[in-house]
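PROTEIN DATA CARD
Card holder: MurR/RpiR family transcriptional regulator
Chain length: 317
Origin: Microlunatus spumicola
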Amino acid sequence: MAIVILTSERAAQTREQSPAVADRIRALHSDMPAALARVADYLLLHPQAPLTLSIGELAEQAGTSAASVTRFCRMVGYAGYVEMRVGIATDVGRSTARESWATEIGREFGPDDTPELLLARLIGSHTKSLREATSAIDLEVMSEVSGRIARSGQVDVYGVGGSAMLAAELQGRLYRIGVPAFAWADAHLGLVSAAIQGPGTVAIGISTTGRTEETIEMLAEAGRAGAFTVAITNNPGSPLDELADRSIVTSVYEQALQPDDLSAKHGQLLVLDLLYLLVAQEDFDRSSDKLAASALAVASHRRPRRTPGRGGGQDHA
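Structure generated from the sequence above:
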């Protein structure tokens, strides 16, 4: 039976068309002579063996010769054993990259999806996240927490990684309406602030998974110091949820959470918006005075609105 020996140019084309070494082995297996078929059988059972075995060691494991291994490499589209090793390493890297993508970003978004498909799936996941957050909100808990925040002598908000953005957003809004709030993304600084909390203060930990160790540590330290502790998380029953005096759960559905799941952040932003408004209502006079003062302070840094005029959009006094 003739053995197909590919030129380097044709081998490169074959690699582009069939990127996985194992797929090519399966496709050509039935056409292989017995000596080459033994190599194929061994590699299908041990696909990464060439990464650690020499050509002689692989031949011994497969019950054949080094020359047969070389002929096998050429039949499946490689110039030699070294080139097949590189192909297997590439396959392993590609598989690892896709697994990392699925873990970090999510399986519903493919690396080759069109912009239109990505947009459609994003709209669906973000709408679902907002719907879930709405159904999970406990208004009694929200009212209690907002009242404590409005009366608090100090509010610490802890969040690291992606949740640091949410912590900073809540801190900025509370501070603007007169609540002495601080956001901590650095665990060392956050632990220092947590340790000097006390009765009459509020500490809030934000974590999508509820398993972020630094956030758990900071909230626990604030609780030991006497602060009223609040968890904001998508994961009921998580360590952060169980640690806090009160929990604001932003999702009631089990789901595979990814660190970069922006739709989960939208559900949390909805909760933070509602919490901010409830705190502002607790002391309307203070909130309105502080908002007016802060708006006046930054007014000179905002360009005036452009109004259409007869001169083609000129600014008018």
